[in-house]
């Protein structure tokens, strides 16, 4: 039977990780995989997570199943983090949700919900978007289209182009938006863009699906959710996929949530039953561990303070690295405008190199990045900035 299945080509990003690992060059730099790294290139366990971990191990007295909705309290805490403590939508019970295996699980269960609607839904993704959005959503059986988004010459969002597509959308369309720290471009929507999207969604009836995978990794927990909160206050329905992979560093513990805002509390309860059934019929229920830790941190003043402090330090280190890289590039007199690097947000930016140049970076300098020249800024450190800037100058 299985001889019918052909081997697939290796995932390009996973192939990059393996090639980096096997590279003996002591100067090698990994800018490929999208995980936060510290100055030593290590993805450390956050301090609040370490403490919560110990407390949890000491107090957990059962490994019995949790509910398909997740760890008790987790969703309430995450909802407040995302929509704010005083969200009217929360007090009106118009938001509900379930814990999911990471942001990927949230996107997939969101897609499964949309497949259950009577209408054939089209999901609109930014061009470009995170590489996993298409497979996650398409394999649930949904149509996918793209809206114009990124202008490479400025490194910013071309909102006019995006808005031309939005103008044509209606009630059978879902628009996937990156809540902050757009992956892969680093180009975020400005607040006035969120306002425009809210106006259009409310008038035309399309539904936003916000992927919030990096809350707190740019301008703070509240600021990074500002666009999403504006949508929530001004439109009837929306979906949100959250991830605790980056902001709690829980990558392998697969912790996230799918949240939905509906027109009234009855719809909210109904949608939750559908989402739980979608989860039940695939992986049954989310891994619990990360949910316990996140819920503990969000509800303990000391742990929360420690977590927020560390998260803010991570965000400001990324900003410093952006600034440092730009300074080194400018100092080398490279004849290309890289000033967008410091205007962009979060972990990613494009270096604007072609495939040959990316391969030269890898083969001649052991600097690893995706063929698109997307780099993970957090993979840099103050010691390698000169080396990376020299290599960029050489390949350009
Ligand atoms: C834009 C975006 N959404 C969602 C995710 C999902 O992350 P995870 O499933 O690891 O929580 C990622 C991870 O890189 C991402 O970049």
Q: TL;DR?
A:
This protein has helices at 12-22, 47-59, 74-83, 88-91, 102-115, 133-138, 159-166, 191-204, 226-234, 265-280, 289-298, 301-331, 340-343, 355-365, 385-395, and strands at residues 29-30, 95-100, 122-127, 143-148, 150-151, 156-157, 173-178, 207-212, 238-243, 256-261, 348-350, 367-368, 374-376. It is of the alpha/beta class and 396 residues long. The strands form four sheets. It has a seven-stranded mixed beta sheet with strand order 2-10-9-8-7-3-4, with helices on both faces. The protein has a two-stranded parallel sheet with strand order 1-12. A two-stranded antiparallel sheet has the order 5-6.
Account of the protein in words:
The chain is of the alpha/beta class. The protein folds into two domains: 9-45 and 303-395, Aspartate Aminotransferase, domain 1; 65-299, Aspartate Aminotransferase, domain 2, CATH 3.40.640. Helices cover 43% and strands 14% of the residues. It has 15 helices and 13 strands. It has helices spanning 12-22, 47-59, 74-83, 88-91, 102-115, 133-138, 159-166, 191-204, 226-234, 265-280, 289-298, 301-331, 340-343, 355-365, 385-395, and strands at residues 29-30, 95-100, 122-127, 143-148, 150-151, 156-157, 173-178, 207-212, 238-243, 256-261, 348-350, 367-368, 374-376. The protein has a seven-stranded mixed β-sheet with strand order 2-10-9-8-7-3-4, sandwiched between helices. α2 (47-59) runs antiparallel to α12 and α8 (191-204) runs parallel beside α9. The chain is globular and about 60 Å long. The protein starts with 11 loop residues before the first helix and ends with a helix. The chain binds pyridoxal-5'-phosphate (PLP).
